[in-house]
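anyone else get weird line breaks when pasting these?? whatever heres mine. first is seq + tokens for prot A
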Amino acid sequence: MEPTAAKKKVPNPADVHVGARIRMRRMILGISQEKLGQALGVTFQQVQKYEKGATRVGAGRLLEIANFLSVPVSYFFETAVLEALETRGPSGAIVSATDDFDVFVKSSEGIKLNNAFLGINDPSVRRHLLDLVVSMSRAGQEN
């Protein structure tokens, strides 16, 4: 009789969503996993597990995290309803309406880009920068 392989536990999508929102807010504020962990009395490895959805965040812990990150608890669930909505793509396949955008916005590159853009105070400069990026993206698609 062969030994059974240990089944890898798949995180609950809601836990993954909450974890991603924790990570995004932490990165927006420029707070390290270690600093958040110290504030919560846990290791940075535990914070990693929360952010990946590997460990479920309990209600009390989520309240602590929300307070430390200066957001209401509802912040961690705001886009969950949007992510659950599915639409049919051009090929007829069911796709999430926010997949590509959400992945980019939650990435370190997306967060840095958004923070830098918000740091530009002159609306005219922001508008010109946006026009430049749009024209560059079109040029890249034509090649």
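and prot B, same format (seq, then tokens)
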Amino acid sequence: MNFQRGQKKEEPEINLVPMIDVLLVILIFLVITTTYSKYADLEITLPETTTTEADKQSERPHTIDVTVSATGNYTINQVPITFSNTEGLRNELQSAAKNEKNPVIIITADAKATHQSVITVMEAARLAGYNQVTFTTETTEAKNNPK
């Protein structure tokens, strides 16, 4: 039995306000939780070499070649050295400098040498007052085309 004969039936409608509220909450959640990486790429300018710089190698100031092996052994100008602490290595560097004011320290370290062994050479150079320290690297061309 229908007791509401004279009244019109209401049309069903979709209420959009709760749906908009839910979408705004999702949007706010996404904005807050999204991480923006501003530093995704580091812009690094690498030094370049030319053949003319290699020809001027004879004009370079006095250099001291320090080699660090994978086992932690050190050589200065291809002479094996032993020392007990950083001050000992500093003294060895100063004796290899032969009264030069500020020689260039060239560190050649094995790829499997520990970071600490390289830092020890750098610290000894700093203690000796030498601020020109550089590293040697092997290019991929030299690896692929051995002479």
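btw re prot B: The two ends are 105 Å apart (CA to CA). The beta strands are 63-68, 74-76, 79-81, 104-109, 132-135.
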